[in-house]
Specification:
The structure holds 2 protein chains of 2 kinds.
Chain A lengths: L6 E10 L2 E11 L4 E5 L6 H8 L7 E6 L2 E2 L4 H5 L2 E4 L11 H12 L4 H10 L13 H13 L5 E5 L7 H16 L3 E5 L3 H7 L2 E6 L2 E7 H7 L2 E7 L12 E7 L2 E6 L4 H9 L2 E7 L3 H8 L10
Chain B lengths: L20 H40 L3 H12 L2 H7 L8 H34 L2 H6 L5 H31 L8 H28 L3 H22 L13 H8 L11 H18 L25 H38 L3 H8 L6 H33 L4 H4 L5 H33 L6 H9 L2 H17 L4 H22 L3 H5 L2 H4 L10 H24 L6
The chains are: A alpha/beta, B mainly alpha.
């Protein structure tokens, strides 16, 4: 029998009064996967994570982590995971070192050498009091506090909020290491390049509903390819070519999106004597914006 | 846009780039709204206190002979004047009311002022909301001045409501307080609120956090009260009365022999504190204090091995402060108990003490009332621990623990255990300190008796803890309102009920009424047992509810 998925939700729903924070979420994350979780503010990302952590009760449906109920068996589940939130609040009177000591003791296991390495990597001064830290430095304490326990599952809710680009780089390196060690990562973010760089699979959430879930390759396949062709003669009319849309002509250059097979388009371009051709897969940003109507690369009706 | 449109409405700039009036006064407007609401609420409490005292006296001391007996006993009693201030005229409703409520209202008003002042100045800054304001068309100094003006509106409201209530009470049959004296009385009583708003405003500039600013202001209040006590103790140091703002109010003598000039230094002091605070605010950075804060420390990890150890570490500074306050109060009460007790036996004071439940003789009777005051201190410390637990949750700090292998009920249970240990320590210290004070004066009160009286302070505080746990489990956002509201109610019931009879069922709702007035009477261990049982059941239900509910942010 294969081991149970690390995270498995079924029909997971959370309502606050009339507000539907999360509706009917079915999600599975297997061991060793790095899954990105995207959505605009208020889409239900944090609600999902608080349900997975057992901090709030589901209105209906189930959330299982390591095969156990995330609420009822919260203490056992928490022994194997670590969580980093985006809005971090720590005890202002404790120093960084004291906070890390406390968090390690409460968790029950710490890789001391790795902790020291992380303190070094994130250039944290642990002798300062939390009160004197900047937001970014407080975030580093929370990150180190989670990573130093080498958990089987890392639950990260916009973890790089407040980190500068250098520290963001250090964070990516650390997640790569975690993946190589076989740790599972659930990363909620609105920094698309971060998700694109780190994640095997991506889910997109909208108004509490999961609207897309798949590998980036799968999602790109569903979306349009951007094609740009240059001619030294007249530009052909691409309007009737099957699968082609959003045609823009700019002098001798034509840009369009193509869905499905590119063969019909290539035939027309070749016949018209194209001298240059560029094609590009949509970025995660384009996929994401398409989902929210901010741009038109998919040409959805 | 009308001139008095809400500060948050409308465009920030008017044509020509001149800042609109609203953006300059937004800080003051926000502060005024909160201060006025709070001032109105406490004005009602002040009014009820004045009414209960005046009407209670009217019905209890009907004849001239009764009133003269009361005056003979109280008027010359230094213990009473040490605690409550001098009592120059106890033969009229007005004079008795002034004696009965002035000190209590002054102290409550001063605490109100320092808490509100530090909350609206330093608390807003700690929460990061000032940065939003200061990015607008204002500076630190100006924003501070505006908030002070808003706080001034709060004091004005407190004065107005208290004055109206006192005037209405004054019109009741047999009370005889004219509108003029009523307005003057209200002014004298709320003057300390204004002073301690000013003190809080200055400490808000000196300290780097609201908690510390409030603690420093509370120390100033404690010193002011202690100086006034010494001045009124009848040991030839009455001149010291001018060294304490509380003494100035006493010298202003509302309702007895008004000396309005004595209020002048209060006005000058308020102005100086306000100007000083605004000036100091302009000289520091946002989020810092003028007294440098230690930003580095060597790691002390002894207590940081788990959540209960963390609770001890977090509660330690506050609890030590309460312990010092309880121990000093107990010592002081012990010191005055003998001289006070010797003058009251068989007197009318004795009857009043008896109505507060202290039916013993001499020093015991006085200590019975004093331990009631200690019970209030200890119960307030318990309430503070409940709101501190809620603050861990509402700030999100609790997330760091409950996303690790920590059971919610275990965390809350640990906090309650630490709080119970803190109030138990307070009770034992209070009893021991009172015994030290009393035996140094040869009062002949036995140690086991006072230690038992100290233990007797714990059950009411435990009920407050249980109620706090219950609220935290069922309606977390109401925790502060419920614990402080219940404590205020309990206090009001014993103060009012102690003078004016009061319905048995109403009296029974007060946890301070349930407590026996030891050492004046033997400790009622049955009542203590019932209170302990109520506390345990409430805490148990609270723990279960807390474990079941969603975490609730602010």
């Amino acid at each position: 029998m294969p081991p149970p998925p690390v995270v498995a939700t079924s029909g997971l729903t959370k309502r606050y009064g009339d507000t539907e924070a999360l509706v009917d979420l079915d999600l599975e994350v297997s061991a060793g996967e790095v899954v990105g979780y995207l959505g605009p503010n208020g889409a239900g990302k944090t609600t999902t994570i608080r349900l997975l952590l057992g901090l709030v009760r589901a209105t209906s449906g189930t959330a299982r982590v390591f095969g156990r109920d995330s609420r009822r068996d919260a203490v056992a589940v928490h022994g194997r995971l670590a969580y980093v939130g985006g809005e971090t609040s720590l005890w202002p009177g404790l120093t960084g070192a004291e906070t890390l000591h406390l968090l390690g003791r409460v968790q029950g296991r710490v890789d001391g050498a790795y902790r020291d390495e992380l303190v070094e990597r994130f250039s944290l001064d642990p002798s300062k009091k939390v009160r004197a830290y900047s937001k970014g430095n407080r975030q580093k304490v929370v990150l180190i506090g989670a990573l130093m326990t080498r958990p089987d599952l890392l639950v990260l809710d916009e973890p790089t909020d407040g980190l500068d680009p250098l520290m963001e780089q250090a964070f990516r390196l650390t997640v790569h290491e975690a993946r190589e060690r076989g740790q599972t990562v659930f990363l909620s973010s609105h920094i698309l390049s971060e998700v694109e760089a780190l994640c095997d699979r991506v889910g997109i959430l909208r108004s509490g509903r999961l609207v897309e879930m798949g590998t980036l390759a799968e999602m790109r396949h569903l979306s349009a390819l951007t094609v740009e062709a240059t001619f030294d003669g007249p530009v052909p009319d691409l309007g009737d070519v099957p699968g082609v849309g959003s045609v823009v002509v700019d002098g001798r250059v034509v840009r369009c999106h193509v869905r499905g097979s590119v063969a019909p388009l290539l035939e027309v371009l070749a016949r018209a004597g194209a001298v240059g051709l560029l094609s590009r897969e949509p970025s995660l940003e384009e996929l994401f914006l398409a989902r929210y109507g901010g741009s038109e690369p998919t040409g959805d009706a | 846009m009308t001139p008095d449109a809400p500060a948050t409405a409308g465009p920030a700039m008017v044509a020509g780039g001149t800042p609109a009036r609203s953006t300059r006064t937004v800080a003051g407007g926000l502060a005024a709204r909160r201060a006025v609401r709070s001032g109105a609420l406490w004005g009602v409490v002040f009014g009820i206190t004045v009414a209960s005292s005046a009407l209670g006296y009217r019905s209890l001391y009907r004849t001239t002979a009764q009133r003269r007996a009361l005056a003979d006993a109280y008027g010359t009693n230094h213990a009473m004047s040490t605690l409550f201030g001098p009592a120059p005229d106890l033969q009229t409703v007005a004079g008795f009311t002034a004696f009965k409520v002035t000190m209590a209202l002054m102290l409550i008003g001063a605490v109100w002022g320092l808490l509100l002042g530090t909350r609206l100045l330093r608390g807003e800054e700690d929460a990061g909301r000032w940065e939003v304001l200061l990015a607008g068309q204002t500076t630190m100094g100006r924003a501070t001045a505006q908030v002070l003006a808003g706080l001034g509106a709060g004091v004005a409201t407190l004065w107005a409501v208290t004055a109206v209530a006192t005037t209405l009470v004054g019109r009741a049959r047999g009370v005889h307080i004219g509108p003029g004296p009523a307005l003057y009385f209200a002014l004298a009583v709320v003057a300390t609120s204004a002073v301690f708003i000013g003190v809080g405003a200055v400490t808000s500039q000196l300290a780097a956090s609201r908690r510390r600013a409030a603690a420093w202001a509370a120390v100033v209040l404690g010193v002011a009260y202690a100086v006034r006590m010494v001045a009124d103790a009848g040991i030839g140091l009455h001149g010291l009365v001018w060294a304490s703002p509380l003494g100035w109010v006493e010298e202003a003598a509302p309702l007895t022999g008004p000396r309005p000039l004595a209020l002048l230094p209060l006005g000058i002091l308020c102005g100086a504190l306000a100007v000083g605070a605004a000036h100091l605010a302009g000289r520091r950075d946002v989020g810092t204090g003028l007294v440098p804060d230690r930003t580095r420390a060597r790691a002390r990890t002894g207590l940081l091995g788990g959540t209960t150890g963390l609770a001890v570490r977090l509660a330690r500074p506050t609890v030590l402060g309460w312990w010092v306050a309880v121990a000093l109060s107990g010592l002081l009460y012990g010191l005055i108990a003998r001289s006070a007790g010797s003058t009251i036996t068989g007197s009318a004071v004795h009857q009043v003490l008896a109505k507060l439940g202290a039916t013993g003789t001499g020093a015991d009777a006085v200590l019975g009332v004093c331990f009631l005051i200690l019970a209030v201190l200890v119960a307030f410390a318990a309430a503070g621990q409940c709101t501190a637990a809620r603050a861990e949750e509402s700030s999100g700090r609790l997330d760091n623990l409950l996303t690790r292998p920590v059971a919610p009920a275990g965390w809350l249970g640990g906090r309650l255990a630490v709080a119970l240990a803190a109030v138990t320590g307070g009770g034992l210290l209070g009893g021991t300190a009172a015994w030290l004070g009393a035996s140094s004066q040869g009062a002949g009160v036995r140690f086991p008796l006072l230690l038992a009286a100290g233990v007797n302070l714990v059950p009411p505080a435990a009920v407050v803890l249980g109620l706090g746990a219950l609220t935290l489990g069922l309606a977390p956002r109401a925790t502060a309102a419920v614990v402080y509201g219940y404590l205020g109610w309990s206090l009001l019931v014993v103060v009012v009920g102690g003078i004016g009879g009061g319905d048995h069922w109403v009296l029974d709702t007060s946890v301070l009424h349930q407590m026996s007035a030891a050492p004046a009477v033997p400790v009622d261990w049955t009542a203590d047992g019932i209170m302990a049982a109520v506390a345990v059941v409430a805490a148990g239900v609270g723990l279960a509810a807390f474990a079941r509910r969603d975490l609730a942010p602010a």
